[in-house]
Amino acid sequence: MDGISLILFQLVALLFSVVIHEVSHGVMADKLGDPTARLLGRLTLNPIPHIDPIGSILLPVALWFISGGTFVIGWAKPVPYNPWNLKNPIVAAAKIALAGPLSNIALAVVFGAFLRFAVALDPASPLILFFGIIVQINILLAIFNLVPLPPLDGSKILYAILPRTAQGAAVISFLERNGLILLLVFIFFGFELLIPIMRALFALFTGLRI
């Protein structure tokens, strides 16, 4: 596969994965009593309403070139929800946040099973590369989004776990004020910490090592 075809497939796989991620947020919010995403037409697998020009196109392409084609990551437009429609906004926000990474883990498990089957059927099959890319992308999306820094999903989960004390409130306040800066620092200097986790999960889901 040439470089152009590879990046196009990676972008399609990434877009498919982030759309599933965002729709999962909206489906969970709808089940918890907030129909905002459904009423705005965001519970659709049509990628057009979900595309973010920077997160869905520019960033993945830039990361592909910067990394020498080793990985891409990005995001779609966040699916909105109204916390006033939720019975317990903090806990509900954590459930909504967790739905996104769990959807990516589910995709990684399913395509990991497809990859095992493809390897057993034909070790030279081009499907092995395709399925492997999908598994890697979804694992990275899941573990990256679970990092407890705003605006990532992990921050909402952390807020639900933190004790309702002055110390807990101080942590939330600090992260809300400095989350974006901390996230940028993590992306540039700490992202490699996720790679061993991704490799371990890839081996678990596919039986293969990368």
Mind summarizing the main beta sheet?
none
Helix content: 55-70%
Terminal Cα separation, in Å?
18 Å
- The proportion of residues in beta strands is under 5%
- Secondary-structure element pattern, one letter each: HHHHHHHH
Q: How many independent structural domains?
A: 1
Instruction: Work out the helix count.
Output: 8
Report on this structure.
Helix content is 69%, strand content 0%. It has one domain (3-206). It is an all-alpha fold. Helix 1 (3-31) crosses helix 5 and helix 5 crosses helix 8. It contains eight helices and no strands.
Could you give a short description of this structure?
The chain is an all-alpha fold. It contains eight helices and no strands.
Record the SSE blueprint:
Blueprint lengths: L2 H29 L4 H4 L13 H14 L22 H33 L5 H19 L7 H9 L4 H24 L4 H13 L4
What would the keywords be for this entry?
globular; mainly alpha; single chain; 210 residues
